[in-house]
Amino acid sequence: MSALREGQLPVFVFPNAITFCADDQATHKQLLTLYNPYDFPLMFRVLSTSPRKYVVVDPEGTIKSRCCVDIVIRHNAVSSSNCGITDKFRIQIQEQGRHRTVLGRRDVPALLVASAAELAPSGGGQGTEGTEHFEQLPTPQPGNLPLLHAQHYALDARGGRLTTSHNVTVMAAAVACFVALMLPTDGERSTPLPKYLHLTVTQKMIAAYILGLVTMVIFRA
Fold first, then answer.
1. Where is this protein found (predicted)?
2. Among residues 91, 114, 137, which one ends one of the domains?
3. Which of 84, 107, 155, 195 is surrounded by the fewest CB atoms within 10 Å?
4. What is the pTM of this model?
């Protein structure tokens, strides 16, 4: 690891862009999953071009080897004046130790739109450099957001399976995601199901991604 140079190590994060919808409170909180497929632990730090507009619990920490961490990001300034503005988060990984050399970075754009109808595809950049000024995010006071702490998961030697999962849990997750994809999308009217069973496009995208991961686990088991 000592031979690695600054910015040389690829950073694996999903999704590569996040979108908040002002009219959908469920999207005001988003997850970024940061993966460490390497054989050594890494330190991570989350920076932002607009740190006052967001709350990020645990904006820095450590990821063990072959583990991943869910980083919770909440938009703290949802208003019409901020719609259409794209901010950026920079995920920066460092080696452990006194010097903490920056090994890699990845920028993830974050867009606030008025409604889901305005959603448009956008991409993030791997190790991009620009004129943006990234600042450190403030750490929330302990106890303010007890349910939003970053969650860590361990991956097995093949890099794709949660070591703490059981077959029953995996199958239940697959069924739940499949059912979620079968539910009507928010805005559909020709359905007898109540409104609380209508999922947003973002929620269905998350369900589809999780279903894909679970399917890989099932076939590799």
1. Membrane
2. 114
3. 195
4. 0.57
